[in-house]
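Q: Got a minute? One more chain.
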Amino acid sequence: MNVVPARRGWENLIAWSDRATTRRAAVWIFSCAAVTFALVPVLHAFRGQSIKDYELWYQTGQLAWHGREIYPDMRVQKFDFMYPPSCALFLAPVSALGQIGLIVALVFLNAAAWIGSMLLSVRLADGKKESTPLLLYLVPNAIILVFVWGNFLLGQPTLLLLALMLAAFAALQRNRQITAGALIGLAAGIKAFPVVAILYLLYRRYWIAAASLAATLTLLLVAFPIAARGSAQAGTDLHRWTEGMLFKYDEKGFGQRAGRSHAWKNQSIFGVANRLLRHVDYDDKYEPHRPVYANVADLGFSTVNKLIGVTALLAGLIYVAVLPGRRRRTAETDAIEFALLLLLMLVFTPLAFGYLFAWLLYPFTVVTRRLMFGHSPLLLFTAIGAVALLALTIPFRVQAQVYGNIFFATILLFVGLSAELIRLQRMADDPMKLSTSIG
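A: Always. Here it is, folded:
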């Protein structure tokens, strides 16, 4: 990692943020936020108020703990727990602590994952510098704080998944491929979508990491459940989950959440494209209600899916095109490369609700670092645009998300960082441009 001076416009901000009083204040504010975020679900449980998804985690853990069915027969009823069987088995011993004990354990895990994600984000974005500007922690967290709060309130594992993915990236940089593959496999064993990272591993010829990922998933989805629940029940669990979640996609939506797949909360390309290009109801209420629409076209289901497929192919080709060759990779290019991968995973995950965009912590850390120590007008423009789009959720919570403000903010970050990766490689080829950029 090249150590370069901060841009002049950032120097005063960095100097202010690095004062001892500012750092102490930041630690206190973070501590208060983390404690508050963790206490709210616990207090809700004590008061008998809604505990969101924590209740489902407890019920699922109890079913697994007592050897009962996790996924009911879909011909009889839909199942509420949509995560892999391995995730249910992880929850089983935690549910033995009782409902409140489970909540306490999970909020502590979320807090630890949040801290880990912050440290790993800065480590990957800034390298092994002895002194990292506090702004590199403050700015990204300020932008995505509401998504972090959503994970604590709902009990979602997004921060844990992010920490595992970032730890895997750090392991790849040290050529610890077995560890990297196992970490991504563990993330996929908790919530399936991180498994698509295997495409990146194969493209970058991380053969050992890809094999490690596959082996880890085999252990988590086959061997572990057989040991815990017997071959017959484990086979039934895996069959019902794959049939009901992985391979269930039709005009009504994905998996067990047909009504929510096209609803305003889903910020993946699947949700946004179907809402805007098909005449489908974007309300996520389950009880009878008056349908509401936001489509600007009325295309067929197959046509929309072809457009999504073409977009996915185009995004993948852009990603491959901007990646540097193996010999031209540096810690700086890797930081952007990993951020782009996370952005693609967010956009093309079938169900991407608001809490999942806590993953933007790392891309925004990379953006902040690039703007602090480099001159990139396009990256600045796209970053401001992304933040502005995210901010629309405050005054227009439903309508902004109906039209995909979070989705398009993610796309803007992808565009800006892709251009920045190209710019960085061009500067490496021209020492004069590099000296001008950091001067």
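A: The two ends are 17 Å apart (CA to CA).
Q: Perfect, thanks.
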